[in-house]
Amino acid sequence: MENCYINGIGCISAQRSFENDFLIEPIIYSEENILKVVKPNYKDYISPAAVRRMSSGVKNGIVASTMAINDANVESPGAIITGTGMGCMQDSEKFLNNLINHDEEYLTPTSFIQSTHNTVGGQVALGLKCKAYNFTYVNTGVSFESALLDGLMQVENRDGENILVGGIDELADHTSKLYKLIEHTKSDTEAPYDIINKRTKGSISGESATFFVLDKEKTTNSYCKLADVKFVNNLEVSGLNDFVNDFLASNELTISDIDAVLLGNNGDIEYDVYYDEAESLFSDADVLYYKHLFGEFMTSSSIAVSLGSDILKSQSIPGALIKNKLPQRNSKIKNLLIYNQYRGKDHSLILLKNV
Question: Are 79 and 163 in contact (CB under 8 A)?
């Protein structure tokens, strides 16, 4: 199998992830059930005139992709591959509101044009003047994993260099209200929120734009090796053991070879049982979690890959991510496994290795 390295990362999230060592003093969200991104200085990356016309998802995607490109020290990507679960919801809502408020008359098409799921990928390409392969995956809870797998195959098949892969989702006001109504988001009356010790229906909603530069060549800035990605739509709790073991066996590993496992616990009493089962499999690994800091959304696993990459490069685990740490670790963190699922569907495993 061809080596695939993560050589650059850019992340805009509910934390100050555009700063170094931002998890030393993370923002603690105990009273909020909707976590919006901490805004960077957009004008450092986008012209002021263009910023005003863009939704937050597009702006964050452009900034995160630019950060990843700069981090990898490359000029232009060999491909742009994005994954999004809900697309540009803010422009979708804006267009539909105008449709209702103006009785379907005198409508400008701008919001409709910018509401498509591939808007971010298109805007990133325009900004970079990149005419290479450009594709957007919309596969609900494995949208980012689909993009990541495509990027991995691009590298393995030598179809391009410096592949830019990202996951983007944004919050929108009306959609957020609907998520609360159908109990996908936790009730406002349940604060303070504690996703580990206080499980209830729904999760804490979030948003993010996270991009990576993948390449077959290792550089001095390489974070880690992207070893493999696998996902499946339907999986019973009883089948998780085989799913994990088969995946590891295909990579010539066993459960005992995993030094840290990063789980997607979100406090949803209906579906966190999957993470309980996963945690029980890894008695010899540090167990980590992250959605208490970033929220739940369909491409949240992109955050996990960013965090896992930083951990492998720095060989240090931020205390804010630790759910269950081994008493003592004397060896390097060599293999880190990410497991995520979205409302009981779209189960994914991502294997990262130290370089």
Answer: yes
And the tokens for 137? Answer: 């995956």
Q: Report, in this order, helix, strand and coil percent for the chain, each rounded to 5.
A: 35, 25, 40
C-alpha to C-alpha distance for 142 and 218, rounded to whole angstroms: 27
The first and second tokens of residue 206, run together, are: 């979030």
Q: How many whole angstroms separate alpha carbon 311 and alpha carbon 305? A: 10
149 token code pair: 């797998």
Backbone angles phi, psi at 110, to 5 degrees: -55, -50
What number is the average pLDDT over the span 178-188? 97
Q: Are 209 and 166 in contact (CB under 8 A)?
A: yes
- DSSP letter (8 states) at residue 129: T
The one-character DSSP state at 27 is P
Beta-carbon contacts of residue 298 (< 8 Å; ≥ 6 apart):
84, 85, 86, 140, 141, 143, 144, 169, 342
Pairing of strands 260-263, 224-234: unpaired
The C-alpha atoms of residue 237 and residue 12 are separated, in whole angstroms, by 33
Question: How confident is the model over 20-71, as pLDDT tens digits?
Answer: 999 999 999 999 999 999 999 999 999 888 888 888 999 999 999 999 999 9
pLDDT digits (tens, 9 = 90+) for 98-123: 888 888 887 878 888 888 899 999 99
Residues 13 and 22: their CA atoms lie apart, in Å, by 11
Give the Cα separation of 286 and 315 in Å (integer): 13
